[in-house]
Amino acid sequence: MPKITELTVSIPNDDPTYWSTLLYCLTKSHIEVHCQNQVMALNTQGITVTQVNDTIFQIIATLQDITQLKQTEQLLYTQQQQHIQILEERLQHLANNTPGVLYQWYQRHDQQCGFHYLSPRCKDYFEVTATDWQRNWQLLRLHPEDQQRWSHSIQQAIAQQTDWTFEGRFILPSGTIKWWKGFAKPVIKKEEIVFDGIILDITQQKKLENILYEKEKILADAQRMALVGSWVWDIKTGTVYRSEQDCRNYALSPDNYIPSYEAFVAPVHPDDKHLIDTMVETCIIEGKTTELEFRVIWPDGQIRTLRSQTELELDDSGTPIRLKGFSQDITDRKQVENILQKRTNELEVINQVIQIFNSTLQLDQVLEEALKKIQNILEITGISFWVKLPETGELICQYARGPASHTVIGYRLAPGQGLTGQSAQMGKRILVSDTRLDPRHHKGVDKSTGIELRSVLSIPLLSKGEVMGVLNVVDEQPNRFKDNELRLLEPIAITAANAIENARLYQLTQQELLERKRAEQRLEQQNLELLSKNQQLENLTQKLAEAQKEKLFQLNKAYERFVPRQFLSLLDKESVIEVELGDQVEKEITVLFADIRGFTALSENMQPQDIFDFINNYMGQMEPVIMAYQGIIDKYIGDAIMALFPNNADDAVQCSIRMLHVLKRYNIILSYAQLPLINIGIGLNSGPLILGTVGGVNRMDGTVIADAVNLASRVQDLTKVYNTPLVITEKTYLKLINPSNYCIRVLDIVKVKGKSEAITVYEVYDADSPEIIAGKKQTQEEFELGFVLYHSGEVQDAYNYFQEILILNPKDKVNALYLERCKLLLGILVPENFTLLIVDDDLQATDKLVEFLSEQGFKVLIAENGAKALEIVKYQSLDLILLAMFMPGLNGFEICEKMKLLQQIENVPVIFSAENSTAIDRIRGFELGAIDYINKPFHCEEVLSHIKIHLRNISLQQRSAKI
């Protein structure tokens, strides 16, 4: 303890200066004094004693030696400064190595704010130094879209005294925009509120997030378009995670489904639940990837068919941790398969019936079995076979099946009597949906059988243009027969007609054989006389045979120019002499069609000899290329080439690319010779083909027969539409060994002429110029995205991609075509120059509409009755008909039915209109071929909207018709 000393001093009056100094020292809290060359620290406390006149009389004070205490305080102060310096160095090191900017932000009650502190790395992240930013905190401007949200977040953190976090954007002095994220904890003080925290640069993170989002969106879109959804089942937790499309496949909401296995299998059809259990058991126990098809029941009662594949995932120790897989909605595909199976069954019946008819010339032997098969598959009341008597033209029932059919067999019909007689007389099929509404129906058969027949289908049996008889199918139900029955019965009718003709020929042949036998007896005697002469001719015959053998050898060599040896090899023939009519073989083949563009225009100014020379020179360039790639030239069709590639699709693609390169060199020669240059289009398709011989006894030809051939020809036509020289189908694309060896991109999904189903086609652009190839490769990803969006109905987004490609690669003609399509669909291009026909007896109701449509640029024709309308359509080309449903005389239904029978107008769209109509009326209108219905009285804008939609569809169909 420091020593305390009490001191009392009396102050003499003779030395006031000294004592005043002593008084000053003793009244201080502490003083320092020098004693024996040492500095002592004293703590003083004192009081003064004064006299009556306020003169200090005494000073009473205590002195405490605190020298050691002061030394200790000095030591602690020194250590504290050193510790502070170490902490500052550590803070500086932390600030320099932290991936972000440490800061202390203050906000005072007078709205003043700024930074107390900023770490030095500001410059690295945000282009400003810590000092500059402290001086002016607005050097980095908040993005205008983030300012209100930033202010609100600070106020909320202060009000709730919670941690503050925020993501936003800074606009740097250079104009660059950077994303940042701030963390801080507000500390409320008396004068101000202080935020201590860190600011992180998350610009790169945001870019990665955007990329990830785009990829996830593309994946989700791909799943949606393919109807394929993915799922993961965590075995340990029992939780099931599902993609949006997987939820859609089960008709569940992606936001609130129950993530459990029980809920996962709940929508599965009760009869198929065991399949799911078996799949899971097989996958977990055996570790096998499993696949199955099963049914699910949607909440609205729909039953959908799904295909699912499952595989097991193990951890490092080999323990199963999760199952993952996908589901695909294949309901539509299964329906198509069922339709195809039904068509296959029909074709099988057709084939069986045809074989029955072709099995014997005794007609009565095959009718019972053939008609029985037809009746069973159609499930109809009756079927009958009528033969026309050449002498009288009457029809007699040769055979019948059905109730009381014995009363029908032998029944005779006069020429033209009943529907059957009418069909035979006109040589055309007759389909009656309800006999009660058709006076042509002959009720004699109904009376004889006691059965009222409501539906009748009569098909004439034609052979070489002559009616041989009639095939009749009948049913008690109205509206029984549709296109399916026609498709089944027409080939059978053709075969039956041939069978009748063959039976007649057989009878004539039998008579001829009898006469021939008699003639042979007469000739037998003559043969004996000629026997001796034959011996003389034998020597001559032998010499002729040797000469003929040599001639046949030379002839066979000549035939090879018309029938390629490869063609004979595929038929397993050594020589063309061995080829017989009907030889055939089925094989997977790629078909090539190559056609000269605009050859008709090229040849207009040529002489016939010049045309042949021109074509032969061109063919001479192409033939060696086709042969070099193992191709077979099947035929030359004018200026077109049809070639077959039996080995693989790569031969066909490589050959096509080579043909285009050879054509470029050949065009250089043509330009030197001042001859027209040639452009060609090449189409490829792959599939099973039947290769064989067709024709007759005196003339036959080798050819291929298959749908794949027609499709290859149609694909070649697409090269004109898309202005690209080489187009292949998806079947050929899938047959390529490695498609990445070629410059290929998807071209379109189209319906070609004569086909009901759409196909995917691809463009092969290896033969384009290097500049165009580079441009297409550079924009291929954008083109494919635009393609997917266009065919998904996202036309505006697709248009944006195609517009971007136009800037990057303006020479891409396919992209330009898609741009034009998008413009048309978006209404940027409006159909023009269309002619409308309004058929309505209420002209007062249509006057305003006619005036309005005319102002919109349409040519409008008016017919106040059905007769005038039918007269107009015979000579006037129309694009759309607005037809009143109810009119005196011919009503709208009768007019529509008659119009659809006219070839020049059968495809013109018809819109029905009526003021009071029932659902049955509208359905009848649609069955007759109408495409739309509009209520009366007319609202001009509404009518225009309907018309524009259908005319725009017409424009698209006209473009598709070119395909």
Main β sheet profile: 8 strands, mixed
Chain oligomer state: single chain
Number of helices: 29
| Overall residue-averaged pLDDT value | 79
The share of residues in extended strands comes to 25-35%
Quick one: overall form? elongated
Tell how many strands the DSSP assignment holds. 34
Class per helix and strand makeup: alpha+beta
Outline of the structure:
The chain is α+β, with helices and mostly antiparallel strands and 963 residues long. The chain contains 29 helices and 34 strands.
Description of the structure:
It is a single chain. The chain has 963 residues and is an alpha+beta fold. Helix 27 links the parallel strand 32 and strand 33. It is elongated.
Key structural traits:
29 helices; 34 strands; eight-stranded mixed sheet; six-stranded antiparallel sheet; alpha+beta; 963 residues
SSE diagram, text form:
Blueprint: E1 4-10, H1 16-26, E2 30-35, E3 38-50, E4 56-65, H2 67-97, E5 101-108, E6 113-118, H3 122-126, H4 130-135, E7 141-142, H5 144-160, E8 164-171, E9 177-188, E10 192-201, H6 203-226, E11 228-234, E12 240-242, H7 244-249, H8 261-265, H9 273-286, E13 290-297, E14 303-314, E15 320-329, H10 331-359, H11 363-378, E16 382-388, E17 395-401, E18 412-413, H12 418-426, E19 430-432, H13 444-449, E20 455-463, E21 466-475, H14 483-559, H15 565-570, E22 584-596, H16 599-603, H17 608-628, E23 632-637, E24 640-645, H18 649-672, E25 680-695, E26 700-705, H19 707-722, E27 726-729, H20 730-735, E28 744-750, E29 759-764, H21 770-778, H22 780-791, H23 795-808, H24 813-825, E30 835-839, H25 843-855, E31 859-863, H26 866-875, E32 880-884, H27 892-900, E33 910-914, H28 919-927, E34 932-935, H29 940-961
Parallel strand pairs: 25-27, 30-31, 30-32, 32-33, 33-34
Antiparallel strand pairs: 1-4, 2-3, 3-4, 5-6, 5-10, 7-8, 8-9, 9-10, 11-12, 11-15, 13-14, 14-15, 16-17, 16-21, 17-18, 19-20, 20-21, 22-24, 22-25, 23-24, 25-26, 27-29, 28-29
